Amino acid sequence: MKHYRIIVMLLFSIQSFSSDKIIITGSSTIAPMLSDIAKQYESSNADIRIDIQTGGSSRGITDARKELSQIGMVSRELKPTEEDLQKFTIAKDGIALIVNENNSVKAISFENIRNIFLGKIKNWKELGGHDQPIVIVNKAEGRSTLELFLKFFELKNSDIKADIIIGDNEQGIKTISKNKYAVGYVSVGTAEYNQSVGVPIKLLPMKGIKATVQNVANGSYPLSRELNLVTKMKPVGQIKLFIDYAQSEKVNELIRDHYFVPILFK
Amino acid sequence: MYQYFLNRRDLYIKILLGASGFICSLCVILIFLFLLKESFLVITGQELSLFFQKSWFPLEGQFNLIPILIASVLLTFGSIFLALPLGLLTAILERFFLKGLFKIIFRRIIEIYTGIPSVIFGFWGLMKLVPFINDFHPPGQSLLSGILILSLMIFPIISLNIMASVEMSPKHFYRVSESLGISRATYIWKILLPSLKGQIFSSSLLAIGRALGETMAVLMVCGNIVQVPGHLFDPVRSLTANIALEMSYATGEHRSALFLSGLVLFLLTLFLYMLSSFAEVERNE
To answer: CB A158 to CB B251 under 8 A?
Structure first.
């Protein structure tokens, strides 16, 4: 019996001695990627535990401000009223409008893209293309790509007249590569990769800027956003180490796995 | 001493059997309770208004599952409508019209069908079948392509079941009808198939279960638009695809509504199996 007690006490003491726990809350766009980064970080730093919870960018801001969390995740640029927080950009996210390679349309204006998705433009003929109906490929609800797309084009999802709804980026690319008259949007990283390996898709420029990973990284491509971590104070100790790690080149692979663009892109 | 030993072994076996039976039954009940608990939020939050909303826009607080439910039922019954004749015909072909090596090869081909993972069917459908249908009527991803892919996936279940039951059906029927000079066709249609009614019914039910639960292939070829289809070329979303598409990014009421899709699917399957057991009881009487 004595042994038992000692073992139990030991277990408890290990539990309480095990050092820092970092709590991170906020955007569900960043959470899956950051939890992969955290796992990789934990495997090389055994004495730290990182707990990631979602709840949207605004929760990320509020929690960080009230110090309910040590780090907040915010998948947009900070508003002027939020400048009191420390901001650390870890990656960028961009969306490319894609069509089939055989589609003769070279570019579509902002207003026309809106009208296509609202069902006001129904035929490629109206945009100078073939006389064929436009097949609209939209994303499933809850996807961050959809959210960014809707916000950029000031649309409501219930107003979009979609013909096909897809889940992940790859499914969208397969669909559009096989359907000559479809139009859809996927993350720039995935689209560029697929095009480079010969999948018959075409990335359309947005407001005259070419959709490339390079342009997303340098900030000139308009349909993109920052993925940020925020803290209330200037980070110190373990928290600083983790943020530095999340901004380092060691996580570039993980960031690309989630179809985002690393900020250290060269 | 020996007697005692045997009894103890019997006891062990009894315990083992009892335990496995108990665990299996418990799991189904636990899954049901889990679905109920997870979908509780949306059921209490929305109550009956749930089924009168415009459509399915979870981020705008609309969770109407009716079009999705209808799509699932249409897909399932559409595919069984094609798969049942196909399964019956292939089974009869194998049993009565093929000999020797051809018979073996044909049987293996049908068996291979059941082993192909559904994602392969979906992938093939997306790359070949959908563009083909798209040439006739865009967008290609449609109720029709879903039904075609599903029937291809479920007909081997019916086919193999019928083959096995023909094999086991009493041989003297066949001998008697041969000695009476009845043609083979008459024997098959008038004597054999009526005697296999029960097996045909139960294997169709198995196939329906598979079609109803199929996720990946349906997700890839059906287009996933939430609507009650007006015709075969309209894209639809099934209950299973609904869950698979949105679960990984859903929170709060949205997540709960997806569990409700699961619950509806569970109840639908339960309903079908209860229907079949009633039919069975009636037949036995």
So the answer is: no
pLDDT, mean of residues A218-231: 90
Residue in A132, A141, A178 nearest the CB of B130: A178
Beta bridge partners of A87: A230
For residue A142, the chain B residue with the least C-alpha distance is B249
Structure tokens at B163: 């083959």
pLDDT, average across residues B118-142: 90
Statement: residue A266 has pLDDT above 70? no
Contact with chain A for residue B31, Cβ under 8 A: no
Helices (H), chain A: 2-17, 31-44, 57-65, 110-117, 144-152, 169-178, 188-196, 213-217, 237-246, 252-257
Whether the CB of B61 is below 8 Å from some CB of chain A: the reply is no
Which residues of chain A have a CB within 8 Å of the CB of B57? Answer: 141, 157-158
User: Which class would CATH give B67-284?
Assistant: mainly alpha
* Mutation for A interface: B123, B215, B245, most A CBs within 10 A: B245
pLDDT of residue B28: 93
What is the reported pTM?
Answer: 0.79
Whether B156 and B94 have beta carbons less than 8 Å apart is answered as: no
- Spatial distance between the Cα atoms of B254 and B260, rounded to a whole number of angstroms: 10
Nearest CA to A57 out of A141, A149, A138, A148 is that of A148
Question: Other CB atoms closer than 10 Å to residue B100's CB: what's the count?
Answer: 7
∠ CA B203-B206-B209, nearest 5°, is 150
pLDDT, tens only, B211-221 = 999 999 999 99
Q: What is the mean pLDDT of residues B82-105?
A: 93
Domains of chain A (ranges, CATH numbers): 2-92+226-262 (3.40.190.10), 93-217 (3.40.190.10)
pLDDT for residue B53 is more than 80: no
Positive or negative: CA dihedral A235, A238, A243, A248: positive
* pLDDT of the residue at B49: 67
**Distance (Å, whole) CA B231 – CA B44:** 35
Q: What is the pLDDT of residue B162?
A: 93
- Whether residue A178 and residue B58 make contact (CB cut-off 8 A), yes or no, is no
> What is the SS3 assignment for B42?
helix
Pairing between strand A201-204 and A86-100? antiparallel
What angle, 0 to 180 degrees and rounded to 10, lies between the N-to-C axes of helices B143-168 and B100-115? 130
Compare all CA atoms of chain A with the CA of B62 and give the residue at the minimum distance.
A158
**A vs B: CB pairs below 8 A:** 81
Look up the ipTM and state it: 0.77
Domain ranges for chain B, please list them. Answer: 2-36, 67-284
Q: Which of A141, A144, A164 sits opposite B58 (nearest CB)?
A: A141
Q: What is the distance between the alpha carbons of residues A179 and A101, in angstroms, rounded to a whole number?
A: 10
Query: Which pair of structure tokens corresponds to residue A142?
Result: 């809850």
Which residues in chain A touch residue B235, judged by CB atoms under 8 angstroms apart?
163-165
